[in-house]
Write the structure tokens for this entry.
Amino acid sequence: MAVDSQISRPIPDIEKNKLYGPYFQGLQNNKLLVQQCNKCEHVQWPARDFCNRCHDSKLGWKEIQQSGNVYTYSVMYRAFHPWYKDRLPYAVVAVELEEGIRMLGSYFGSDVESLECGMRMKASFDKVNEDVTVLTWIKDETK
Ligand SMILES: [Zn+2]
């Protein structure tokens, strides 16, 4: 099906999600960043105002590997936004990365119905505009 280029992709509101600023900045630079506690070094995702382990509020950011295994996924057959209409079916995939981090992203491969739990995936960085890059997953064929 032809893709309608007049419709803009829905993007996260980076101004509203200041807690995730370093994450979005990392995506702009083709990096995956997650929170890490400066006190106990616990790594966590999603981002929070404090450490899940020691409750300290001094958190930094750490770059993590960009590939992992499909933990779970859901194939979408209906578009929640017009931009997705020409891209159906697509999947929302939770990929398990190092340290138990599970990160959500879309998968737009034409072979979406061949996804399986445990499959190797790697990050792809889709530059939507000058300010926003979003994470999508692609199959990691190197493994
Ligand atoms: Zn901590």
In short: Helices lie at 21-28, 82-85. The two ends are 31 Å apart (CA to CA). Residues 12-64 form one domain.
